[in-house]
Amino acid sequence: FANQLSTAGLWQLSDIYYRLQRTDGALRTLELLSQRDPKDPNIDLRRGQIYKLIGNLDLAERSFKKNLEASPHNAPAYFELARLWEQRNEMAAAKSALLEALRQDGNNPEYLRELGSVCLALSEVDEAISYLTRAEPAASNFPEIYYTLAQAYQRKGDRAKAATYLNLQKVHEINSSRRKKEIQEQAELTLITLGEEKLDQGNRAEARALFEQVLQTNPDNWHANEYLAKIFLSTEEWQLAEPRLEKMEQIVPESAEGNFLSAYYWYHRQNFQRARTYAERAKTVQPGDAELRNLLGNVYLKLSQPDKALEEYSAAVRLAPSRTDFQANLRAVSPQNSLPK
What we know:
The protein is an all-alpha fold.
């Protein structure tokens, strides 16, 4: 389906894959982007970030350098190179790259913090503090700044200041974790939305792939499990549907939709007692659902309880009077064999 996306859509998909650490998907998306615009230097920048994420530092370094050859005024590439060289303990080279990144983007708090950290590694404590102090106004968004400042003042022997910054770091780390969770949830929501669009277009296989990508990152995403359960039920892939339904019940056991789908599943698997349990559970939450009431009527009929089936079919017709299939079910069990006026 990625081939059908616009260039902007491909970049969005690449960003989602990257944030979810779905590196194979991210690299495939970048390959599509490079076919459309081979001269776009940002492709090499993102490739380098992905290679660094999977631990292939040689390919990452090559990608960052290729990016800078094509676009020398690119502070993020210098920043990424610096962090890579830090991993290799090449601190002098890392400092040089960070100074160039700051020359191009002098107020970037991430660059300032990273440079402060490198200076500490080089035992340049006062210089480190000067960079970190410049970064401090942004520390609420980058709690690592507080932590590095604490390290710097610890090195200077100022334990009081070090303790102050450590406490600030702990407080803001909690907020940072919340923001990361929000970013993760937004990425999942984007994939769910793309999957919904594919379902609307009739592209069931592509929608399934998107929902499954969500579950690879977060198996407890209820909506992804729900959509996959519906897809498998509609195609009668019962063995694939069952684990999705079980997961839905585990996450939200009182869900009317989840219980309805489980009732539908067990009805078609000929286990009418289990179907009844789920359908009745769903009815207590959502008695105004015509589909559910009709299904429960079917279940009661299979359990040789025609009076209860009549009650459910009557409710289904009352809730959805235009449904001829519901009317036919009601006629079949009505004592007068006709619809009540």
